[in-house]
Design brief:
It is a single chain. The chain is mainly alpha-helical. The protein folds into 2 domains: 142 residues, no CATH class; 123 residues. The chain contains 12 helices and 6 strands. The strands form 3 sheets. It has a two-stranded antiparallel ribbon with strand order 1-2. Strand 1 and strand 2 form a beta hairpin. The longest helix is centred in the C-terminal third of the chain and has 34 residues. The two termini are 45 Å apart.
Length: 281
């Protein structure tokens, strides 16, 4: 958030940590309505014409499509049901809309009775980019911190201070390493991920670290750098049976280990690349 106003600076604003779900979905519905008016859902959901009533889009029955994909009723139309959305409903609908938004590019003006534009050509990628930008602005105001990814998935925002590690490319040309790290990261951050999903993500990162060990041993002479493996492995041996802990303890432990492993992998990969470049020169 940019400029902070008086009550925010003073700490007296009732929504200092963000808006509740009721206010967030109201904000969302206004953003959606403006995009709908601007034609961003005409290709998928159709539009109204003064001459022909409703002109169908690619999705003939939106409620049926939502039932078949999200497996829920009472989500559509948005204007009717948005005030009763739970957090899950809200985030489900965001992901659904991302699949169907497209930017109107060209069409014909229907001037009769000020009907408006009949859009005929669309650009899906441009539409998704704009939708993502606007939805992430809405999510910035929500008390629970989420963001919509480029793949159209709602993810938990990184913990403060770790944003850079998610924005940075994995410093490796090995597609096996890059793929496993990216998959583990998405599984850990995905909205609705269970403790088991996060547990598996941590295991996957531990496997990547073990996979790197032979390469690193050739490069490492510094005891401190060797300790990276010792800390990770010893901690893992002692604490992998986190199911004995409470759910709250397990969630904290998994979060700590995920960031620890991810940070360690980035350090190790950068060390490998750095030493490779030194060897070449």
């Amino acid at each position: 958030m940019g400029h902070k106003y008086y009550s925010q600076r003073a700490g007296t604003n009732p929504n200092l940590n963000g808006l509740p779900i009721e206010d967030t979905v109201e904000l969302f519905s206004r953003v959606y309505l403006q995009l709908e008016i601007d034609g961003y859902f005409d290709e998928a959901f159709g539009f109204w014409c003064v001459d022909a009533d409703h002109m169908e889009g690619n999705v003939k029955d939106i409620e049926l499509e939502i039932l078949l994909t999200i497996r829920k009723k009472n989500l559509w139309p948005i204007s009717e049901y948005v005030s009763s959305y739970t957090e899950d409903d809200f985030l489900d609908v965001i992901e659904f809309l991302y699949q169907y938004v497209s930017k109107p590019i060209d069409g014909t003006m229907h001037s009769y009775n000020e009907c408006g534009m009949h859009w005929e050509t669309f650009n899906k990628k441009n539409g998704q980019n704009l939708f993502r930008e606007k939805i992430n602005t809405v999510l910035e105001h929500y008390k629970n911190k989420f963001e919509l990814s480029q793949n159209g998935e709602v993810l938990h925002k990184p913990e403060e201070g770790f944003e850079q590690i998610f924005n940075a490319d994995v410093p490796s040309k090995d597609s096996n390493i890059v793929g496993r790290i990216n998959a583990a990261t998405t599984n850990f951050r995905r909205h609705g991920s269970s403790l088991d999903d996060r547990r598996q993500a941590v295991r996957d990162l531990a496997d990547v670290l073990e996979y790197l060990r032979p390469q690193v041993q050739e490069l490492l002479t510094n005891k401190d750098e060797n300790d990276l493996f010792n800390i990770a492995n010893n901690f893992g041996i002692r604490h992998h049976n986190d199911k004995q802990k409470t759910t709250y303890d397990a969630a904290i432990w998994l979060s700590w280990m995920f960031y620890f492993y991810l940070s360690t992998i980035h350090v190790v990969l950068r060390k490998i690349e750095h030493d490779k470049s030194k060897t070449k020169h």
